[in-house]
Amino acid sequence: MSATPDRTPQQTAERVRERMYANDPAVRGLGIDVTEVAPGQATVTMTVQGHMLNGHATCHGGFLAALADTAFAYACNSYNELTVASGFSIDLVAPAREGDVLTARSFELSKAGRTGVYDSEITNQHGERIAMFRGRSYTIKGKPAVAD
């Protein structure tokens, strides 16, 4: 399902988003919405809920990592080549609190052969930076991310 004369790269990215989301119970269960996709890019949002809080009444870092990892996943699969994470790191720079609407924007820094590097930034509804994430991807050649 890569881009063809009948399907632009943007249309391919949108089709991948639609199909991946339909098959992604973890993302849906966390209340994450995939709001934008483009080749090598994705934006996702999530509202911090009470059950996501840690003992300090701030969003648990695991939920922040899941949000950024989701943006990364949709960005690196946007070409419809099955791509998985080979690793990631995250720096938490400010707390997120219950009711905050968080946005993670991911974009491709490098894609060469089977490997890629993507950065994701998480901000809150006030535009304040909450976390920075860097993901490393590995593409399985010859396999689509989603069926056509």
Condensed summary:
By secondary structure, this protein is α+β, with helices and mostly antiparallel strands.
What does this structure look like?
With 148 residues, the protein is α+β, with helices and mostly antiparallel strands. 24% of the residues lie in helices and 37% in strands. The protein contains 3 helices and 6 strands. Strand 1 and strand 2 form a beta hairpin. It starts with 8 loop residues before the first helix and ends in a 9-residue tail after the last strand. The mean pLDDT is 95.
Descriptive labels:
single chain; 148 residues; alpha+beta; 6-stranded antiparallel beta sheet; 3 helices
Strand percent estimate: 35-45%
Number of strands: 6
The largest sheet is: 6 strands, antiparallel
Q: Radius of gyration from the CA trace?
A: 15 Å
Give the rounded overall mean pLDDT: 95
Gap between N and C termini: 6 Å
- Poorly predicted segments: none
Number of separate helices: 3
Fraction of residues in helix:
10-25%
Instruction: List the helices and strands in order.
Output: HHEEHEEEE
Query: Strand sequence of the main sheet, in spatial order?
Result: 1-2-4-5-6-3
Q: In one word, what is the shape?
A: globular
Structural class: alpha+beta
